[in-house]
Amino acid sequence: xxxxxxxxxxxxxxxxxxxxxxxxxxxxxxxxxxxxxxxxxxxxxxxxxxxxxxxxxxxxxxxxxxxxxxxxxxxxxxxxxxxxxxxxxxxxxxxxxxxxxxxxxxxxxxxxxxxxxxxxxxxxxxxxxxxxxxxxxxxxxxxxxxxxxxxxxxxxxxxxxxxxxxxxxxxxxxxxxxxxxxxxxxxxxxxxxxx
Length: 195
What we know:
The protein is α+β, with helices and mostly antiparallel strands. It is built from 4 helices and 8 strands, in the order ββααααββββββ.
């Protein structure tokens, strides 16, 4: 210690020397390893740090799980909202399908030409375009293989010139909204007796 102006002060060189450990040879001998000296150090500190780290890791894990649950709930709510919207749209579209059928029948059996027919064709096209914007698509039927998930067979017709179960006539067009079938196509199906 050094005294200056009547006060005691610690010499920094003395502090460094006090905390220096002698080489391992001098502490324990040539072949032995020294046990660290822990005078004045509380041995509970490392376990408390470990506890705090474990608690922190547990909280971070919990936070990550809660964030994932929240994201899943948000996606589920958006999907349910879209499903509800599609369901509500389905009823409105089903109400419009008979109108579309009437237009198609009128165009198929109308002998009149000229402005009246072109006006009906224009209205029919507008209605088809409006439904297409909502995601409505016609179910392909004519010339396709009969599929009970998409087609409703009204009649079986014996035809040896066509493959078995081929749709030969579409009586009423079927429609789907995105992936949901709104109405199956009503069809006549070929039955080949030779096969």
